[in-house]
Amino acid sequence: MEENVILVDDQNNQIGLMPKMEAHEKAVLHRAFSVFIMNDKGETMLQQRAADKYHSPLLWTNTCCSHQRDGESNIEAGKRRLMEEMGFAVELKELFSFIYKAPFDNGLTEHEYDHVLMGHYGNAPAINPEEVADWKWMRPEAIQLDIQNNPESYTAWFKIIFEKFYEHLMQHLSK
Question: Of the residues 85, 110, 112, 131, which is catalytic?
Fold first, then answer.
């Protein structure tokens, strides 16, 4: 059973539902979320997408991301998907949201109203091998440098989202 995504306008007002694949084929704006988990050392948990994902297999990305279900809050969706992909639950807070568009090599396009969520965790995840091939902790500065040097190793959306996440971190550290 294919999941629906929540179609939204550019103000994040829900305007309908559509099967996920159809939304990605038509590049229709829909609601999504991206979770960043940090540890006490200031490192970010990255995941490497599983080899059999229908797009961006084996690329590195943020801790987890997906789409809210109809009637589900951003935080509820983030907690659900974090458990499904990474095998742990933590409190999450919403940092900011923005719209982006990222085409893939296979003809699909992510056009998302993305809600960026953050939580803290210090242990190893219990990854779901159907979703995640590997994981690692990296300092945000190291991620930024590695994206510059090895952009092909990262998902299209992560490169966009990480830049905004890094700016957010730097603004809050300087306060």
Answer: 112
* Active-site residue, 3 included: no
What is the CB-side half-sphere exposure of residue 14 using CA atoms within 13 A?
13
Got the DSSP string for 85-140?
A: HHS-----EEEEEEEEEEE-TTS-EEEEEEEEEEEE--S-----TTTEEEEEEE-H
Q: Which residue in this structure is represented by tokens 């300092």? A: 139
| Contact call for residues 122 and 137 (beta carbons, < 8 A) | no
Domains and CATH numbers, the chain: 4-173 (3.90.79.10)
Express each pLDDT in 79-138 by its tens digit.
999 999 999 999 999 999 999 998 877 788 999 999 999 999 999 999 999 999 999 999
Alpha-carbon distance values, 50 to 31, 116, 139 (Å) = 23, 22, 22
**Residues 127-154: what's their mean pLDDT?**
97
65 is catalytic: yes
Which one is catalytic: 64, 65, 85, 110? 65
With a threshold of 0.85, does the pTM exceed it? yes
Rounded mean pLDDT, 6-35: 96
How many Å apart are CA 18 and CA 92, to the nearest integer? 27
Both tokens of 134, joined, read 């590997």
